[in-house]
Amino acid sequence: MRIIINSVPKAGTHLAASVLSEMGLTKRDDVGLTGIQRRRSIKDAALDFIWPRKVNLDLDESSKSTSTLRCVPQLELIENNEFAVEHLPYSKALEQTLMRHNVRLICIIRDPRAVLWSWYHHMLKHADYQFHEEMNDPSLSLEQKLMIPILGRRKSSDIVLASLADRYRRFLPWKNSSIALWIKFEHLIGPHGGGDVELQQETVAKIAAFLGVEIDSYTIATAIFGRNAWTFRAGRIDEWQSAIPASIIKYVDNEFSELYSDIGYAPAN
C-alpha cells in the first residue's frame, strides 16, 4: 500500500507524518505531486490550489485527466509502506489514478481560522515564500494582511493565491472517497496542544486500523505528543480565538457559513 497524507496547506501534515513515522513507515520527500502541478499550464492547474501559474476552476474532466496522468511516474516512487505529504484538491480522475496505484489517503482537516493564523505566521517568517513581503509590510494592518489569504490574490500575471474557502471546497470531496481516511487536526493534537487525550488515542487507532498496522495507540501518542517530543509554534489549537481580530473571525465565519457543517466546524460564538 502506498500512502499520501493530504491536506489544505497549514492544516497539520507534519503532525500526521510524525504519527506514521512512529508507526514504522518511511516518509519520501522526492514525490512532489503538488509541486509538479504548480509548474504546469492552465490545463494542468487542477491539482494545485496554492499558487498555480494559471487558474481555471471549471476545467473539464478530460483536462484534469491529462494533468493527473503526469503524476503517475511520481506515484510509482512510493514503495510499499512508504508515504508522501501533499496538498491535492479532489478530482475524479485523480481519485481513480490513486486507486489504480494502490494509494490510500489520510486527509487531515483543520479549523480554517487556525489555518489562516498558521498561514500568516508561515509567510511572515519565510522570505522565500510568495507573500512574505506583504505579511511584513508595515503600512498594512493585521486585518489587511489576513484578508489576503481569505480573499485570495493575484500575485502576478502567472501566480495566483486561491481564496481560503475555495481551497476547502476543492478539498472537501475527499471526505466521501473510499480510499481516504478523514481526520481532524484537533483530535490528533492531544492535551499538550489543547486537545483531548481520548480523542487523540482514538484518532491514532483509526489511522492504524486504516493502514492495517498493529500498534498501541497510547504508546504512539505518548511518543509523538509528549511534552518534549513535539513542538508547537504557540502550543494551543485555540490560539486563533484570541489572536485574530473579531472582525476577521466574523468575516471568515460568513465565508464558511455553508461549509462549516460539511467540514465539521462551527461559527465563533
UniProtKB/TrEMBL annotation:
<dbReference type="GO" id="GO:0008146">
    <property type="term" value="F:sulfotransferase activity"/>
</dbReference>
<feature type="domain" description="Sulfotransferase">
    <location>
        <begin position="2"/>
        <end position="216"/>
    </location>
</feature>
<dbReference type="InterPro" id="IPR000863">
    <property type="entry name" value="Sulfotransferase_dom"/>
</dbReference>
<protein>
    <submittedName>
        <fullName>Penicillin-binding protein 1A</fullName>
    </submittedName>
</protein>
<dbReference type="Pfam" id="PF00685">
    <property type="entry name" value="Sulfotransfer_1"/>
</dbReference>
<dbReference type="InterPro" id="IPR027417">
    <property type="entry name" value="P-loop_NTPase"/>
</dbReference>
